[in-house]
């Protein structure tokens, strides 16, 4: 098994989200739309049934709320397991479609891909950020290949998403979003990435990723960083890994 392919024990079938998610879908989402008045473009581009991957730029913590609120169908995304430790935060994140996962690189990243694959194979929609982490300077960073791998492996179409203004509604460090700013959520036309080749091909994954990022860039109109958005290395080994050529997933 190569280092860029999930493998081993298959992911467990996704669980039903339960009452908290139903409450969020039918009450919290409409309330958020009424309060924050997001501009939503391209809702007609979102397939109403079957597996679909929303691939979005990432500017703010609130991005993972903006996409489910704007989407015409339920959307799931992975969130740090620490967000589910307290009852109140667990109810909130469950209500907006979040599923707890251990975040990190290496095996943790592969396990996350397996969970997302299980959701797609169950016919659901998932939201992912190819950049990997939030852009702190507003630029659009290079995409990691995990999203493309999932799309090529499962055959799910990718709907590119351009988020505009979420960093102003809830900047880094803010405790609550402001109502003085409005966000724009743009859904692009679905991408069929199968012409790039099989998921096992590194060239196919890279080509599909570049197509996804080009579509996101056309929607978000951000300045391109032409680099990966790397989390600061915690030790010398991590710093070496960031310098050496390797596939970011």
Q: Would you kindly provide a brief summary of this structure?
A:
This protein has helices spanning 18-36, 63-70, 87-95, 107-121, 146-154, 166-169, 202-220, 236-243, and strands at residues 39-41, 52-56, 77-80, 98-101, 125-128, 158-164, 184-187. The protein is an alpha/beta fold.
Largest sheet: 5 strands, mixed
Q: What does the radius of gyration come to?
A: 17 Å
Overall geometry: globular
The tally of helices reads 8
N-to-C order of helices and strands: HEEHEHEHEHEHEHH
Percentage of residues assigned to helices: 25-40%
Strands, count: 7
CATH topology, what is it called? Answer: Glycerol-3-phosphate (1)-acyltransferase
In order across it, which strands form the biggest sheet?
A: 1-7-6-2-5
Uncertain segments are 1-13, 237-244
Q: Briefly note the structural class of the backbone.
A: alpha/beta
Indicate how many domains the architecture comprises: 1
* N-C termini distance: 15 Å
Percent of sequence in beta strands: 5-15%
Q: What's the average pLDDT?
A: 83
CATH hierarchy, class: Alpha Beta
What's the CATH architecture name? 3-Layer(aba) Sandwich
GO molecular function, one term: 1-acylglycerol-3-phosphate O-acyltransferase activity
Protein name: 1-acyl-sn-glycerol-3-phosphate acyltransferase
Domain Phospholipid/glycerol acyltransferase: 52-166
Keywords: Acyltransferase, Transferase
What can you see in these coordinates?
This is 1-acyl-sn-glycerol-3-phosphate acyltransferase. With 249 residues, the chain is of the alpha/beta class. The chain has one domain: Glycerol-3-phosphate (1)-acyltransferase (3-Layer(aba) Sandwich). It is 37% helix and 12% strand. The protein has helices at residues 18-36, 63-70, 87-95, 107-121, 146-154, 166-169, 202-220, 236-243, and strands at residues 39-41, 52-56, 77-80, 98-101, 125-128, 158-164, 184-187. The strands form two sheets. It has a five-stranded mixed β-sheet with strand order 1-7-6-2-5, with helices on both faces. It has a two-stranded parallel ribbon with strand order 3-4. Helix 3 (87-95) links the parallel strand 3 and strand 4 (98-101). The two termini are 15 Å apart.
